[in-house]
Amino acid sequence: MIPAAFAQSTIDREGEAGAAWFAELPGIVDELLERWSCAPDGDVMHGGVGVIVPVRRAAQSAVLKVSFPHPGNVHEPEAFAAWDGRGAVLLHERDDDRFAMLLERARSSTLAAVDDGDEIPAIAGELSRRLAIPAPAGLPRLSEQADQWEAELGKDAEELTHALSDAVVDAAVATVRELGRVQPDLLVHGDFHPRNILRADREPWLAVDPKGYVGDPAYDSGTLLKVWTFLHLGVADLPKAVHRALDIFAEAAELDRERVRRWAQLHAVQAAFWGRRHGFRRARSGPELDLFTGYADRLAALLT
């Protein structure tokens, strides 16, 4: 059974293409189950862009993941193949035409559920260090997005009503110019937040849902820290907590702390503008959206 909420959100986002994909999805799943000799082994789950079907193949537990065909999902299997289980779930099978993979099964509990505020950046930092390997050929480079980032920052600052100071926006633009256009040839997860880090059996924690970019590993700190702060909205001393998390992540990842801070600040500014222009997945409008955009503003200022 395809989760109804996932079906509706995909159709709302993708329109007729989303509806057509959902009409084909049960057949795609059945075909892949048969081809890869798998039997369903639990309730169908979903993420933002795909369904996850727990399966068994002989004595092996795994998941079948089928994603909506979208450019952002193209390079996920290449990232998994390059890591080969090093800090991420193992890739057993792939069908790139179907945007489908058979993956090692991890648990449903994510790093976001950990109560200890220090543990999240510490675990994520260690994983980030292990995932930062030489990138395989053919993956998209983050440096190729730098011109677009700078153009969007200028456009958003001019067109949107916002509370970000010139100094905050200028700092983000400087990061794009000074760090964004020349980056290392290392594999970058690309969507490295606590909900994409799962408890597992083979290793304590494993990463899932990579975008598969080539670039600066410190880039991933921005997504991680942005989501970490949203998980700690009620912390008593936010500036102290944010900078402590920054210190812990940078040390565990073995990255330059200033570089990590600058990427995180850029992510926060982009999030503040994105929320005003498009809304967030968890808040499209109303008071909750105002809360989230205001928090992104505050985080951007704290990191400047």
Write up what this structure looks like.
The chain has 304 residues and is an alpha+beta fold. It contains ten helices and ten strands. It has helices at 4-14, 16-35, 76-83, 119-131, 146-159, 166-180, 219-230, 238-253, 257-278, 286-303, and strands at 39-40, 45-46, 50-57, 60-67, 91-95, 100-104, 186-188, 197-199, 205-207, 213-215. Strands 1, 2, 3, 4, 5 and 6 form a six-stranded antiparallel sheet that branches. Strand 3 and strand 4 form a beta hairpin.
List keywords for this structure.
alpha+beta; 6-stranded antiparallel beta sheet; 10 strands; two-stranded antiparallel ribbon; 304 residues
What would a concise description of this structure say?
The protein is built from ten helices and ten strands.
